[in-house]
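Hi V.,

You were right to ask for the full record rather than a summary. Here it is.
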Amino acid sequence: MNRQIERRTFLRNSIAAGAGLVILKSGILKAGASPNEKLNIAIIGVRGRGGANLRGVKGENIVALCDVNAQNLAAAAKDFPRAKTYEDWRKCLEQRNIDAVVCSTTDHTHAFVNVWAMNRGKHVYCEKPLANSVHEAHVVRQTYLKNSSKIATQMGTQIHASDNYRRMVELIRGGAIGTPSEVRVWCSREPEGGSYLPKVTPVPDHINWDLWIGPSPVHPFNPGYIQGGCLSWNRFWDFGSGQIGDMGSHMNDMAYWGLDLTLPTTCQAEGTEFNPDTCPQWLTAEWDHPANDWRPAVKVYWYDGGKKPGMPAKAFDREELFKGALFKGDQGWLLMDYGLRILMPKLDSDMTHYKSPKPEDLISPSLGHHQEWIAACKTGRPTTCNFDYSGALIHHNLLALVAYRVGKKLEWDATNLKATNCPEAEQYIHKTYRKGWVLNG
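Predicted structure:
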């Protein structure tokens, strides 16, 4: 059977769920429940992305609200007066009638909320990224896989639900660019560097700073950490993972879905001079991914902080392409952004190698990113960014920061979380947590 037929077969078999997904054996709310019955949802983190995610699920029963900012919590409680309120998400998860959890906290607590909730049999929707270290991403993914027959999960890469992403998958897996060999992904955002912020006292009465710090080392309060959204704090190693953790979750999603990737075998990266406090202001990275049953081994490249790959034709070297992905195959290229796709066949290609998919082979439109998860919680219908798929994606992304910090190309044993040629990488694969905080709780 040739690769064209193999690709078509694979595409048809993956229409409903995307790559690496499973259908729940017992994913409904409870035995005998109707799909129309509402979920009881706890919202952990209620403003910013939390507010957007709350609006995405507000048609269900919001039974619990949790936030370390009492003012934000009080404002959300006005809209959901029957919901119980909490400062501490650990106490929130003790509420007995919770079916599902939406996590929109700071990045350094995502993995904790995810794992604790899954360990208690809760469905989970988590804002990206799922974790703040390779080890955390691994634990989140493995915890989900152990419970995948009972719970539904989804990472908040909302653009994944777009029709444009679906057309990208169909083109690549259908062979429009021939046999793929690489994808180059970039985001031109240039974050700040600097050091941890100086102490500002006192801590406002409405903020529980100890819970905001959570499992990370203690840093004195400074309003600069929390004003202005995630870009204020995710540049710091103890709280986030810079642009590869933030925008990499969205942009490398194109590479992962289009090429059906899992975990890499090597990784190397370089960036600005290492700072013990903040992530690099620019980063370039390269991963090797093994072959699968429809394509050979491929490379993934990443560029941020103003770095950017060259285009195959000057006409497409557009200044407005602030971010994007460029897939290369032996028959041409596919240039992608959230709302853009440009197929560029090689000059000598007559495109006879590609046949447009039949209507029945098209990937079905999304219900909506939040609605996919809600439907999965109630009926077992699969999601397209569950914690198997997205756990591997975040594992992949954060490995680049490990390679950057040690300054070596890593030979990667993904199963055992070991850089086999670089024992000094261990200190960056796992994180050390503040006393009293347990990841797998």
